[in-house]
Write a structure and sequence with these properties.
Order of helices and strands: HH
Structural class: mainly alpha
Number of helices: 2
Number of strands: 0
Largest sheet: none
Shape: flat
Oligomer: single chain
Strand content: under 5%
Length: about 80
């Protein structure tokens, strides 16, 4: 049992680190796209915010809600900007 929990935590840390690396790389690309403009910081921040909201909703949909109509464990995350 302890082994399984340790393995799950290890996998969760790996998943989080890899998702954060993806978000950083993707949003750095957005920053570079706008590098000559004063809006570059806003665009990069908006990118990080939107990706985080999308990821939060994906986690909610796949792990915290039910397909059979049972109420979700937590309320549905807001994905609007």
């Amino acid at each position: 049992m302890i082994r399984r929990i340790t393995r799950c935590w290890g996998q969760l840390r790996w998943l989080v680190a890899n998702w954060q690396a993806y978000r950083l790389s993707h949003c750095n690309s957005v920053y570079m796209q706008w590098r000559d403009g004063s809006i570059r910081g806003v665009m990069a921040f908006s990118c990080k915010t939107q990706l985080t909201k999308q990821r939060s909703h994906d986690i909610w949909k796949n792990f915290l809600s039910y397909m059979d109509g049972t109420p979700a464990i937590l309320p549905e995350p807001d994905t609007s900007l």
